[in-house]
Amino acid sequence: MKKWISPALLAITFILSAVAHYANWDHTLQFILSSIAVVFVAGFLGRATESVAHYAGQRLGGFLNATFGNAAELIIAFFLVKEGLFDMVKASLTGSIIGNLLLVLGLSIFAGGLKFKVQNFNVTLAGLNGSLMIVAIIALFVPAMFFNTHSITDEDTKLLSLIVAGILIVSYMAWLSFSMITHKKYLEDVTDKKDEVLPNEHAPVWSRNRSILYLILATVMVAFVSEWLVGTLETLTERFGFSELFVGAFLVAIIGNAAEHSAAILLAMKNKMGAAVEIAVGSSLQIALFVAPVLIFASYFMGNTMDIVFTTIELVAIAVAVFIAKSITQDGATNWYEGLLLLVVYLILGVSFYLV
Amino acid sequence: MKKWISPALLAITFILSAVAHYANWDHTLQFILSSIAVVFVAGFLGRATESVAHYAGQRLGGFLNATFGNAAELIIAFFLVKEGLFDMVKASLTGSIIGNLLLVLGLSIFAGGLKFKVQNFNVTLAGLNGSLMIVAIIALFVPAMFFNTHSITDEDTKLLSLIVAGILIVSYMAWLSFSMITHKKYLEDVTDKKDEVLPNEHAPVWSRNRSILYLILATVMVAFVSEWLVGTLETLTERFGFSELFVGAFLVAIIGNAAEHSAAILLAMKNKMGAAVEIAVGSSLQIALFVAPVLIFASYFMGNTMDIVFTTIELVAIAVAVFIAKSITQDGATNWYEGLLLLVVYLILGVSFYLV
Amino acid sequence: MKKWISPALLAITFILSAVAHYANWDHTLQFILSSIAVVFVAGFLGRATESVAHYAGQRLGGFLNATFGNAAELIIAFFLVKEGLFDMVKASLTGSIIGNLLLVLGLSIFAGGLKFKVQNFNVTLAGLNGSLMIVAIIALFVPAMFFNTHSITDEDTKLLSLIVAGILIVSYMAWLSFSMITHKKYLEDVTDKKDEVLPNEHAPVWSRNRSILYLILATVMVAFVSEWLVGTLETLTERFGFSELFVGAFLVAIIGNAAEHSAAILLAMKNKMGAAVEIAVGSSLQIALFVAPVLIFASYFMGNTMDIVFTTIELVAIAVAVFIAKSITQDGATNWYEGLLLLVVYLILGVSFYLV
After folding, report:
1. Could you tell me which of A55, A102, A276, C77 has the fewest CB atoms within 10 Å of its CB?
2. Which domain holds residue C14?
3. Tell me: the pLDDT tens digits for B313-346?
4. What NCBIfam families does this protein's entry cite (chains A, B, C) (predicted)?
5. What's the pTM?
6. Is the CB of B320 inside 8 Å of chain C's CB atoms?
7. What's the complex ipTM?
8. A86-98 vs A273-286: helix axis angle to the nearest 10?
């Protein structure tokens, strides 16, 4: 692909999406155009983050990667929170987690497995990721359990949500300091020259100031496109009879994660399965341990606290995704059939969410 | 045991069972006689399948083994479906899965463990089996979850059941092509000359035509005996006050799996634990991924679609069996105490099902 | 610390607690004093048991260790059973299990991890412990499931409870004979000279008769102090508005396990992580497989059978603790972040139990 195609497509899709929004074109068309724009803008944001990270040095760079990695999801979710669409926020967080653990990871393992008989990656990091996934489920599951089995007041539910959110953010900060400071080398060793295999490898290295400018520009663009996209969702659910759950958990999630999808699959097909697993699993962990808690605090500061109580089927979907992903990654070896199993579980969940 | 004993016993028990049925003897006696006959006929079917498999070549042979392995359960279940006893079908599928994972595997590990301090088998296949078990639970669990938490119409439930059943059958076909074509050698290596240790080793090698004739004969006999057996169950539940759940999940399942039981235990006592694990775990996977979906399609073609919604305690029983079996097999080493733990879980489930 | 401090503190706290009880001091003060006394008396009981074990020889000694290890919890629970406070019994058993798996294990791994980058212990025993934990959950979970989904009579529930309790005690006896007789050496090898690293290493070796006298004295003291402590709990829940659940699951459990806490953490900081894990995990297994069933039989002989049906949130708390502890220990290596994760889960549960 020629170098100028990507910026051109970025500009065209962004402008088309803007025109569609302000000229108030048909909502279905607006949805399609802003969806396409989100994919390109998210990719641009990813490259800009990489470039800033390059200049910021490894540690701060890693942190920037980690926090901007899910920026598109975070910003989309912010607008959903602002509009008080809490159910769709939770559905889209759910969708993002299961989308990464089942669709992104499944496609990566399947595609990689078609080219390579068995693909290996380090068991230690897989185990650590598995434990973090379990903690993420627990943090979502326990409040819901207490909410469903006890007559807990609305205020206590919100207080509990804020406390749990706080605990998760602290855990996430501790994870950053663990993986980037105290046990940096320990984890670097195990992923075989992690820096080389990260998806960032082909990121453009613009000059420092340009990079920062691009990062600001990309964030602003993501913010706009996300708002345009969110604006169309309600019409969409009405017009096509999709449930909020299905739109949030599948449509929004797939669009918001498009950049990760392609990066992970390309890495897997280059036999860099460790990096592909990290993108998919790491991204879903960020959603649960950082994005979700931040949204709860954001809603609190906006004056209308969103609680952390997910619905039973959302929790089941997340638990199911974690169990199968943990089972498949824990031996540090994958093959095409294991990728297929992840896709099978995604399909079963998708059909179920659609039919409800 | 002399060679002629087995055919003689087969004939005698079959004829006695037939006489009992057509002369309309006491139903309890009919139940006992047809149960004994099922055990022998299932053994005969097993040997006939082996023999045909021998002539059919390894690949087709493996497929025949896989599909005829649970033929007795499948045929018993067909008659239950035909009579519309959907609850008992699901109970017997549940019983077959937990019977294989807890009773067959538990007795094998316990008996083998009394003779050998530690018995080893390959970890890779154990991990793969574990992931398949998780997928099997998910496929049963997700529809039930949606059914119990949402007001989903009867038609949508049946549609979802058919779709999930279709997905499972495709997954099973993919598993066959994975384990018998693309990764045949990979899995053969890990089970140490798999062909030699399979239970099939003592299967008689009759001539080709005779084998096919025997296979047809055995299938017909299983069909008859299964129908006679099923006919007595309702009287049995009425007369002894057993619940359908207990009869389906424990009595029918133990009888239907008798052949696997003895084969797996004998292999374990010969220190061929890998093969014993494969019979027990493989058989339970077949029930969940192939037999159950086929029965749903069969019921659809009979005009009265059985849904895939299992009761909560059936799902709990299956989940419980999968978790403990996965935990015990995943390190690729077993001892007598681990066998005992599986039997303990079976006993707890059995007592609970009996008392309800 | 000078040698005479501990006996002096033991005597002073015991006497103060006695005075507070019989002079009927303020209940909050009584609670504080008897709590402190329990900690010292439990420590004394621990050392006395060690000393008797030393003379009794390894096998019987191991058995004494195992059965007296949780003597304080057992005796506290006896008095709760006697007063018919079944809900608080179950809450305190729950608290003891999660306290050991999350707080004791978490602090040990965290404290050890601050001193050592990675701490290793044997994978085989970790796997076996994991399977036992799963069986423990199943034994608690299955009766509750049947109780909640079926109209099972009160009598049948108690019968089922007694049967399950009997099965668990037999399993525990089998575990003792497995780990101390048939596979003693197998497990000794894997924990690297287990005898040397057990917490017992600094236990005083008094003369034989003195040791037995001390053991009797310590048991009597524990019995008294426990009764005084239990007597204050109800006032405490009334005065401070704590729920029975929170008092039982957090306050009583932390006090009753204080001795284990310090022993395990000290071992972890000496890089004897295998022994620390065994104290924490082994203690929680004893509670589930031995203490809880014994209490059910005790209540039966007292004429008012306590059933084994735990509440949903107790089961969730136990399941959650088992899953994360199993996930973190199963690779046989720990670091400070994994300890933090266990503490995070304990904190989430604690806040939730407090707010309900």
Report:
1. A55
2. 5-355
3. 899 999 999 999 999 998 889 999 999 999 999 9
4. cax (TIGR00378)
5. 0.86
6. yes
7. 0.84
8. 160
